[in-house]
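Lab notes, practical 5.
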Amino acid sequence: MQPGRLTRRNLALFAAPCLGLAGIGLPLTVYLPSFYSAQLGMELSAVGVAFMVVRLLDIALDPVLGVLMDRTRTRFGRFKPWLAAGIPLLMLASGLLFFARPGVGSAYLIAGLCLAYGGWSICVLAQTSWGSLLSPHYNERSRVYGWWQAFNLIGLLMILTLPIAANRIDPGPATGIRSMGLYLILMLPLSAALAVLFVKEPPPLATAPLAKLSDWPKLMQSASVRRILLVDLMIGLAFGMDGALFLFFFTKAKGFTEGFASIGLLLYFIGGLIGGPLWTAVARRFSKHLALAAASFCSIAGLLVLYVIPNGHQGWGAAASVISGLPYAAANQLMRSLMADAGDEEKLKSGVDRTGLLYAVLTGTSKIGAALAVGVTFVGLDMFGFDPHSDHNGAEAVFGLHSLFLGLPGLLFVLAALMLIRYPLTRQRHDEIREALERQSASS
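Output from the prediction step:
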């Protein structure tokens, strides 16, 4: 094994919590909005506004959490205790959101979402910050977050197969949702325990300066951090819009059944799982930012493939789902690896380890993208006169669906790719930063 190379065992154990945490990400955006509107009777706009408001309010929590984690000093590390603390919140949220009954209103949905996104913020921020400490090396960090993203996708595949299997046993509009909730309640504590108990966290230096909440504006002085955050916002918004409308696009615009639309979503993430190692290899061969730019252009190609497939043709629909999913893994794994490098640059400049705060800011931009995605898409569909209950929407409503699923996300991917091409923190620059940090450590 190469010096500094992490074992597959440690990488797998570190990534294990994703098997549960993945169910609090995209499935909430994909399944719950349509479930609460089409099955529980809430209005589209009310559902969209609830998701958007909670996610935007949740953003204010991230910098506070990041600083608290950076200032935490326990014998178990900075981040592991926080990961363990967030799991009970997610279990409670799963019980509320996935087992809701007809007649619930906006207050119920908002309360469940606050618990879900608050607990998710704690757990994901703790895990991704912890991951940046597992290795200081440029390529090895791509590998760390490659495993992290692979387990996210495996978790998504596991939870997305549940509605298909559950509906075969007990057909019904709520059966699949209930099965996902039960999966989360069981998987969240089991998967988190594997990482907390068996993977060590490198301790911070006892004499290191502590991060402060007032440090947040200083991070924006970094050109690397600013570029990462803006790109993350655009790509997150693009993927979020596609995720929120995936089921509607397949059923209302392409004429597939709801059952096949669920299979299509499953195949999309299988494509993401297949593509993950590819983007790690491209990043190793060229660089992380150029690999992410290439993946953004591939995402546009994937949207075009979905647009041109014949309506209702399951063979083409299955193939298009896999192809369009190939670039999906690149953004999450490479963006976090880039932020780890930017953290080294920031530490060299300031002398302060702001790992938690940096990942809190990155989590915040992801939330802004997700919040705007659900709000923009569902309110936008309402403005175009789209009816989620009808199989015969008019030309204007279908045009709105195409515009929000294909046109706007495609534009965002183009802008993100153009910004990445001239990203300043290259592999060579990061090597120089690591050498300078090692000299500082040796002389202190």
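Observations recorded by the TA: Residues 77 and 201 are 6 Å apart (CA to CA). Residues 13-198+211-443 form a domain with the Growth Hormone; Chain: A; fold (CATH 1.20.1250.20).
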